[in-house]
Design a protein that fits this description.
This protein is an alpha/beta fold and 346 residues long. The chain has helices at residues 11-17, 35-41, 56-65, 83-90, 106-110, 136-142, 145-156, 161-172, 180-190, 193-196, 204-215, 217-230, 245-259, 291-296; strands at residues 25-28, 48-53, 73-77, 95-101, 232-242, 279-281, 304-310, 317-319, 330-333, 339-342. The chain has two domains: 11-105 and 217-262 and 278-312, Vaccinia Virus protein VP39 (Rossmann fold), CATH 3.40.50.150; 107-213, Putative methyltransferase TM0872, insert domain (DNA polymerase, domain 1, Orthogonal Bundle), CATH 1.10.150.
């Protein structure tokens, strides 16, 4: 078993993007080894850090690492889909910042017994939560050929999904597929040698797809982002680090919808859909790792950071959507919790 160390990705960019206040309340939906958490806790001497992770080994390692910060740190074992409910209880006034780092930790990748790695043989597991109900082995041994093809194509963007799925089904008819080594061999045999050249490890996309499916990663992300924005304090920021295009697309679309939720046809003179903007996207384009960081940490290569800021409680002029007012009407949030509507002159 490897050591749970953590080299936080895009650390300087996260610290800047969250606009950290010394007395703020910050939350972490993917605590991992605690690298981001440690840096943020150092900057909030009078604040609170609420963190969750579904991996008990990560929680144990991070709790030990962050012990010097005492009761400023509150840790819970949970999937980040539960974070909105936890924050409603632990931070009823809202969080000033929330971080999601959606990458698989180096510890998980480097521990063969966790089943994430196609470079070392181990049980075909891939569960972020070791007590989770579905393993990668369950998927490859029980799902239909059509379902496996869809998983590999949709979650791994694998061009040879159909061939790999057919060979998986053929192999499991002889004996269950129980190890990462078995699956890697099947994938290697399924992809033409010429197609494997210069594309990285041939099993990379298959392993990504099965990991996403086993942990419901994209479903959780898509279903939780809006709720995380809702539990931000006025002016609070949600920062999300993604590692592949499927995740990034979900975050990009969710942030865009939160900023511009109106679904009325452009021809409508007034908005009637009832949808109100929740804030603004801080990062019009994703923030990428610097050349310096890439030289020090090759696993940061595919990382992208996007940030959304919730509408502040006062002094924030945002478009009004979902009210029977002319286009261009503004809403101003006042300190007493009420709003002032600013209608453009005709």
């Amino acid at each position: 078993m490897g050591e749970f160390s953590h080299k936080p990705v895009l650390l300087r960019e996260v610290l800047t993007g969250l606009d950290i206040r010394p007395d703020g309340v910050y939350a972490d939906g993917t605590l991992g080894g605690g690298g981001h958490a440690e840096a943020i806790l150092e900057r909030i001497p009078n604040g609170t850090y609420i963190a969750v992770d579904q991996d008990p080994e990560a929680l144990a390692a991070a709790t030990a690492r962050l012990a010097p910060f005492g009761d400023r740190l509150r840790v819970f074992r949970a999937n980040y889909e539960q974070l909105p409910d936890i924050l409603r209880r632990e931070a009823p006034k809202g969080a000033d910042g929330i971080l999601l780092d959606l990458g698989v930790s180096s510890y998980q990748l480097d521990s063969p017994e966790r089943g994430f790695s196609y470079r070392a043989d181990g049980p075909l597991d891939m569960r972020m939560d070791p007590d989770g109900p579905v393993t990668a082995a369950d998927i490859v041994n029980t799902e239909s050929q059509e379902t496996i093809t869809k998983i590999l194509r949709d979650y791994g963007e694998e061009k040879f999904a159909a061939v790999i799925a057919r060979n998986i089904v053929s192999a499991r008819e002889k004996a269950p597929i129980e190890t990462t080594g078995q699956l890697t061999d099947i994938v290697r045999r399924s992809i033409p040698r010429k197609a494997q050249a210069g594309e990285g490890h041939p099993a990379k996309r298959t392993f990504q797809a099965l990991r996403i499916a086993a942990n419901r990663e994209l479903d959780v992300l898509e279903q939780t982002l809006d709720g995380l924005i809702d539990v931000l304090a006025p002016g609070g920021r949600l920062a999300v680090i993604t590692f592949h295009s499927l995740e990034d697309r979900i975050v990009k679309n969710a942030f865009r919808t939160a900023e511009h939720p109106c679904i009325c046809p452009p021809s409508f003179p007034v908005c009637t859909c009832g949808r109100v903007s929740k804030g603004k996207v801080i990062t019009r384009k994703p923030i990428l790792p610097s050349e310096e960081e890439l030289a020090e940490n090759r696993r940061a290569a595919s990382a992208k950071l996007r940030i959304f800021q919730k509408a502040p409680g006062s002094g924030f002029d945002a478009p009004v959507y979902g009210t029977l007012y002319p286009k261009g009407t503004k809403i101003k949030h006042l300190p007493d919790g009420t709003i002032e509507l600013i209608v453009p002159e005709e």
